[in-house]
Design brief:
Elements (H helix, E strand, L loop, with lengths): L7 E4 L3 H13 L5 E4 L11 E6 L2 E6 L4 E2 L4 H9 L4 E3 L6 E3 L9 E3 L8 H18 L13 H5 L3 H8 L3 H15 L8 H11 L16 E3 L10 H11 L4 E2 L18
Parallel strand pairs: 1-2, 2-10
Antiparallel strand pairs: 3-4, 5-9, 6-9, 7-8
Helix pairs in contact: 1-8, 3-7
């Protein structure tokens, strides 16, 4: 197999990797840039699929699906790519299902599910405790924050087991972890969780649909393009050049070669 040489090789064709590749090309069109992606698609955590719906087939975002007016960079990208957003619809009946496949499916029409007084007290104290801790976290340099090493040595799950009394609140926070981070609480550094919440302006802002919150807006599906939020990655890949984005190309080894100095 003949060798290929590129100035820059980006690993991963998610939004970050594709944005980095496109920015490099814009800064210096002479650079040869290649993006390698192990999956058979671009998009990373954003993936949109055709699923059965009331009127036949509809497009559904199965991964990351929300953007916020406070996320200025992605909003600028959406505008630049000629896409549109719409507010997350919240009126009407909602479906609430936590606790595993055998748990009862509940519905509600208020802003949040109804909880017992004890559960509400547990939930309120948890938010107060977390938000108080986020106030001391440096978003720019998390490790400079008070007790940074302690919080970084424990997981979100560790914190939950120590400070949450009720099973329901544990299940709710675990569900939120899967929605926001795509990971289990046992896989997340508690310091990272605090930094992420601090950057959002508070824990609830990661989950609310109010202006500036994490679940405020969705990307419109366009008939000719389809794809919800995955449209962002597809359009970035088109601008980079499909020949420069290789799918099914898992990176298994990276070697860093040190060039001997002239003195040596």
């Amino acid at each position: 197999m003949s060798e290929e040489h590129f100035d820059v090789v980006v690993v991963g064709a998610g939004l970050s990797g594709l944005s980095a590749a496109r920015r490099l090309q814009k800064r210096n069109p002479q650079l040869s840039v290649l993006v390698l992606e192990a999956r058979d698609r671009v998009g990373g955590r954003t993936v949109s699929k055709d699923l059965p719906a009331a009127n036949g087939v509809d497009q559904w975002d199965m991964g990351g699906q929300w953007v916020s007016s406070s996320q200025t960079h992605v909003m600028e990208l959406i505008q630049e790519l000629g896409l549109e957003v719409f507010p997350q619809y919240t009126k009407g009946k909602k479906v609430h299902h936590v606790g595993g496949p055998q748990a009862k499916i509940k519905t509600y029409t208020t802003s949040m599910p109804s909880y017992s007084p004890l559960t509400m007290l547990d939930f309120t104290l948890l938010l107060w405790r977390i938000d108080r801790l986020t106030q001391g976290v440096s978003v720019e340099d998390p490790m400079s924050s008070p007790n940074a090493e302690l919080y970084d040595s424990m997981t979100l799950h560790t914190f939950m087991e120590k400070h949450i009394w009720t099973t329901q609140v544990k299940e709710e926070l675990a569900l939120c972890s899967r929605i926001v981070f795509g990971m289990e609480p046992s896989q997340i550094s508690f310091l990272y969780f605090l930094m992420y919440s601090a950057a959002a302006g508070g824990t609830l802002r990661l989950l609310e649909t109010t202006p500036g919150s994490g679940q405020e807006l969705k990307v419109k599906v366009r008939e000719k393009d389809k794809g919800g939020t995955q449209q962002l990655s597809k359009k970035l890949a088109e601008q980079i050049g499909k020949e420069r984005v290789r799918l099914g190309a898992a990176v298994t080894t990276i070697c860093q070669v040190t060039t001997p100095s002239a003195r040596g």
